[in-house]
Amino acid sequence: MKKIPHKSMLLAAGRGERMRPLTDELPKPLVPVLGKALIDWQLEWLADAGIAEVMVNVSWLAEKLQTHLLWREFPNVQVSFEPERLETGGGIVQALPFFGQTAFFSVNSDVIMQNGAEHPLLRMAKAWDDEQMDGLLLLQPIEKAIGYNGVGDFFIKNGKILHRGAEVAAPYVYTGVQMLHPRLFADAPAGAFSMLELYKGKSARFGALVHDGGWMDVGTLAGIKIAEDILQKP
Predict the structure, then answer these.
(1) Fewest 10 Å CB contacts: which of 61, 96, 136, 159?
(2) In the prediction, which pLDDT does 4 show?
(3) What is the DSSP string of 35-74?
(4) Furthest-apart CA atoms within the chain: distance in Å
(5) Is residue 56's pLDDT more than 80?
(6) How many C-beta neighbours within 10 Å does residue 96 have?
(7) What is the per-residue pLDDT across 165-187, written as a single tens digit (0 to 9) for each?
(8) DSSP, res 4
(9) β-strand partners of 145
(10) How far apart are CA 209 and CA 28, in angstroms?
(11) pLDDT of residue 23
């Protein structure tokens, strides 16, 4: 059995524009879902997979988020502070020394994951091909994407991702969960940039894995209400 990486990035520096005015005074990762902060849903999910060390990037209302994270014992949490938000790609680049030269996970803080037959991170570790991949994205069929009202992000072609581009819609939504190798960022731009630039530019080195469990987009107030209704059901 392949060894699962024990480190993960948790992207939590977003301003939370879609949750305003709530996020004017509260960092998005601290917005509660059934009384539990969004970031705690993800940290517990990472811990369930045995992830022992997590780097959390913070920017907007960073002190409030850092204070919240102080109490957590497992996984061990470290913080990467961004005086000016570096977006998804730049945020990971700043934190790269934390991961050394081995593959690691990266997850968004505004989703709630429900496992399928086994933990998705274990499935991803099994699917990882170090010779053929610099990245592996976990995708959700758009018809099973709870709280999501977009048009999809990717097609899957020969086991690789293909961004929607000019197409009207795509059948798969990016879950915010990925496995990455540091070599992916060898020629990455300096400063702030989106991971979407790398997805488009290096798609041949990005594998795709379809999630077999539940996935909830809780990046909006409407999405949180939908998630709470579902999570309260037996």
Answers:
(1) 159
(2) 87
(3) TEEHHHHHHHHHHHTT--EEEEEE-TTHHHHHHHHTT--S
(4) 48
(5) yes
(6) 18
(7) 889 999 999 999 999 999 999 99
(8) P
(9) 215
(10) 27
(11) 85
